[in-house]
Specification:
Distance between the termini: 25 Å
Number of helices: 12
Number of domains: 1
Number of strands: 0
Largest sheet: none
Strand content: under 5%
Shape: globular
Oligomer: single chain
Helix content: 40-55%
Structural class: mainly alpha
Order of helices and strands: HHHHHHHHHHHH
Length: 224
Amino acid sequence: MKHSFPLRALARLVEYPEQEMVDHISEICEVVNSSSVFNKSITAGLISLTKSIQENDLLELQEQYVECFDRGRQTSLHLFEHVHGDSRERGQAMVDLLDTYKQTGYVMDGKELPDHLAIVLEFASTLDEKTAKSFLSEMTHIFDALYTSLAKRNSLYAWIIAAAIDFSGGKVKLIELKPIETTMDEEWEEPAAFGGCSTKGQSKPDEAQPVHFVKKENTQGARA
């Protein structure tokens, strides 16, 4: 399947940078460069990302990664956070997603939660092309928001999201984002003494819609 290796390359690129990934970055670059799955501008953007990984110090790459993805919900790589926050609906969505994985025989390695983008892309790479496109298209509204957040930060990682959108048949575009209310660090802070109970992070985001996955039978900064 011609899309399998390109999607796996995206999955590797969006993981926390470790030495093993850096050691194989030229191979990842070759897969991306030789692929016809993504359009030319997105391929060029992905190549820029691989070169940045290749040329920068590992510790610096790791610091940039944490700063980019672990400092707020709008750039979280755990996709259901964009939809459900920390509400109970996220737990059920996780169960549904795990069930989808199990139905196809896909086994996770246990390092990440099932809604992490790297896992989602890896799973999509195991599906036939039509099913993979359909699966990723169910997350278009999440990808749009994540792409916009990363593009506005001029992050090269935005090209990974652009590639996922493009592959699924969507149009890569910037959308209007809701203002950030609190960072995830702030949400986990202890409440002030006698401050009462807080419901922050426990209610469903206003504009979100539930995401449920069902197995289908046979079936520059960073702007694209």
